[in-house]
Amino acid sequence: MATPNYGFEKRQKELAKKRKKEDKLKAKSDRKMGLLPDEGSDEADPEVKTEDQPSADGLADPRATA
Fold first, then answer.
1. Rounded to an integer, what distance in angstroms lies between the CA atom of residue 37 and that of residue 23?
2. Is 10 or 54 the better-scoring residue by pLDDT?
3. DSSP state of 63
4. Which element (helix H / strand E) includes 12?
5. Greater confidence, 63 or 13?
6. Is 46 left (phi over 0), alpha (psi -120 to 50) or beta?
7. Where is mean pLDDT largest: 15-19, 33-37, 48-52?
């Protein structure tokens, strides 16, 4: 039976953590520069509909009736 390669697993975990951190820093700098709207603002996706709000054509969502 093969032995687990803990060094490889640790390195992959460290790389994933580093990548996530870099992505967060990039997103933060983009928001600061005004390229992307803030995550909590309503401007991010104005086309989002709530479930109790009918669609534009007045019909119910066809995916809901299955």
1. 16
2. 10
3. G
4. helix 6-33
5. 13
6. alpha
7. 15-19
Residue 26: the pLDDT is: 94
Average pLDDT taken over every residue of the chain? 76
Residue 10, both tokens? 């640790």
In which region does residue 57 sit, left (phi positive, over 0), alpha (psi from -120 to 50) or beta (all else)? alpha
DSSP string, 37-49: --TTSGGG-TT--
How many whole angstroms from its chain centre is CA 16?
Answer: 16
- The reply to whether the predicted model has a pTM over 0.90 is no
- CB of 60 closer than 8 Å to CB of 54: yes
The two most distant CA atoms of the chain are separated, in Å, by: 63
